[in-house]
Amino acid sequence: MKSKSNNLAPLILFSEITTVDQLIRAKISKILPEGMAISHLSVLNHLASINNEKTPMQLAKNFHVTKGAITNTLSKLEASGYINIRPDWSDARKKQVTISKSGIEAQREAMKSITPILQKVFIKLGSHKAGVVLPIIRELRNILSK
Questions:
Q1: What are phi and psi for residue 98, nearest 5 degrees?
Q2: Which CATH number belongs to the domain containing residue 53 in this structure?
Q3: Are 73 and 139 in contact (CB under 8 A)?
Q4: How many helices (H) and strands (E) would you count in the chain?
Q5: The whole model's pTM is what?
Q6: Which site from 7, 12, 34, 85 is most exposed, i.e. has the minimal number of CB atoms within 10 Å?
Q7: How many CB atoms lie within 10 A of CB 41?
């Protein structure tokens, strides 16, 4: 009987991870500012943290999505005035993306809006458990990123 449950362990693990992802995304999506999706916030967070230009292809690789998917997200962010897209002066086929001042403000406001729900979950889980699970989640992310 144990071998059967051991065979299910990977499925159960990834099922739990997927469910947690879906639940947190649902909670965050409800409280993000009007018109902002989690993918938009993810890109804004990334651009705000690097303080450097990135090409759409570099962003697609960072987020493990297709160039088409990142182009769609970038188009929406540009239309909102949250990012600037300019031609790459060294290679006319490429573009460079940076976060705008209004993008930095929008990112800060979005983070302010989601922090209470994240804090609430963290407190319910407890800092000790969070400290135990964080290295495991990071290791799992590194394994899956390769």
A1: -135, 160
A2: 1.10.10.10
A3: no
A4: 6, 2
A5: 0.86
A6: 34
A7: 22
